[in-house]
Amino acid sequence: MSDYIRRDFLRSFGLGAALVAFPWKASPNETGIPEPTEPGTEEDTGLINICSYGATADGSTDCTAAIQKAIDEAAKSGATVLVPQGTFLTSTVKLYPHVGMLGYPTWSYRDFGGSILRLNNENAKCLIDITGAFGTVINGLCLHGAVLGKDVHGIFLDKPDYGEQEDTPLIQGCRVSHFSGDAVRLSRVWCFRIRSCMLSHCVGNGLYVRGWDGFILDNWLSGNRGVGFAATKENASNTLTGNRIKWNESGGILVKGGNNYNITGNYIDRSGGPAITLIKGSYDFAITGNMIYRSGKPEWTPEDDKSSTHIRFHNCAGIVLTGNSFRAGRDDGGKGTYSPFNTIVYEGLEDCVIKDNVMHNGSLKNLLLDLGRHGENVIVKDNVGKLLPVK
Fold first, then answer.
1. Rounded distance, CA 192 to CA 135, Å?
2. What is the average pLDDT score of the chain?
3. Residue 18 needs a FRET pair 20 to 30 A away by CA distance; which of 44, 103, 114, 342 works?
4. What is the DSSP secondary structure assignment for residue 28, as one 8-state letter?
5. In this structure, are residues 191 and 209 in contact, taking their beta carbons and an 8 Å threshold?
6. E-assigned strands of 17-150?
7. Is the pLDDT higher at 36 or at 179?
8. 10 Å Cβ neighbour count for 314?
9. Which range among 36-40, 60-64, 122-126, 226-230 shows the weakest confidence by mean pLDDT?
């Protein structure tokens, strides 16, 4: 393969340095995806095929040992593990520094597809453990939790402390769904990227972050019983841009005590409770250009005015909320009950600006519900709109 084709392939899959050090002799098929590696040829492609180590894509054979053996082999040289198309049953597998996993990302919103790893152990802590796997890349996998066990996560990083170096995992093009815990849970993470993934239909949250320096871009965070994005321990310096966060039973975005966030250009729809909640001393947030629709779904929202809202700020400082659009609504197909009661509920603010937001049919009772107890320099003005007329 010529150098320019090799570079284009690596760029299209976002593998970067995970593969660039390895010679590449396989030819792409018509889709641009390399043919699955045959046994004994891994040294020629830079990919370690799990089927070469005994994994079987029949959806009934336990492939845990075979997949782990392939990962262990890849760890010797910092190679990438290829998961071919099909369903592989597995318990927890552990990744190591500079080891990647690559699959065929042909899943859809409603269906599992492509390279599927399906959990088969209700006592597992997770499906993929990336603790200590500095620089790992997980690309194009479909992870199926089968709602087994309790608090079993899809992808899990769980460090006892933050250590002395950045973690820098990249998770992209993956569907992580139907876990009894969170789809992705990163505990004490330092630098990470999650993009173009679907983190959905879990008993917990779509994405839980304890840590900082993250980029969360262009994802579906949908249909979880928790929230779409949660950060409830120490957290800071995270960017959420261009995500579709919808139909999460406990809310869209929940941050406790966080700081230095950029929340821009997201679509947040039909949350239980608020679309965005900032509490417990959160500070320095720029929240701009978001479309927020149908928050506070009554069946999922506590029966109090403060919870039935698009935005909830409590004891925050340094917040700018501007250029956002809010609208009340009900379930698809004109069914269900309209919500929320309020557009923005705010209390205990200091050095904050809530300005130039649009609330056309924004809520049912109050566009702005000011609960007082503010410090200095709180500006709330030029927010236009009207209540939704519901008969």
1. 9
2. 91
3. 114
4. B
5. no
6. 47-49, 58-62, 80-82, 86-90, 93-94, 100-102, 115-119, 126-129, 137-139, 141-144
7. 179
8. 19
9. 36-40
- Separation of alpha carbons 259 and 241, rounded Å: 16
Which phi and psi angles does 71 have, rounded to 5°? -65, -45
Residue 133: pLDDT band (50, 70, 90) is very high
Q: Hey, which residues does 101 pair with through a beta bridge?
A: 81, 138
Strand partners, 329: 339
- β-bridge partners, 378: 352
Query: Under DSSP, is residue 200 helix (H, G, I), strand (E, B) or coil?
Result: strand
HSE toward the beta carbon, residue 354, CA cutoff 13 A: 23
* C-alpha to C-alpha distance for 82 and 84, rounded to whole angstroms: 6
Q: What confidence score (pLDDT) does residue 11 get?
A: 39
> CA angle, 117 as apex, 112 and 123 as ends, to 5°?
115
Residue 324 has pLDDT above 50, yes or no: yes
| Euclidean distance between CA atoms 224 and 272, whole angstroms | 10
The model carries a pTM of: 0.89
Would you list the DSSP string of 355-370? ES-EETT--SSEEEEE
**What does the pLDDT read at residue 46?**
77
What whole-number distance in Å separates Cα of residue 98 and Cα of residue 109? Answer: 30
Phi, psi of 238 (to 5 degrees): -110, 145
CA distances for 40 relative to 22, 36, 57, 84, 212, angstroms: 16, 12, 19, 16, 41
Helix, strand, or coil here: 3?
Answer: helix
Q: Could you please report the per-residue DSSP string of 250-306?
A: TEEEEEES-EEEEEES-EEES-SS-SEEEESS-EEEEEES-EEES-S-GGGS-SSTT
Q: What is the mean pLDDT of residues 75-99?
A: 97
Asked if the peptide bond before residue 36 counts as cis, ω within 30 degrees of 0, the response is no
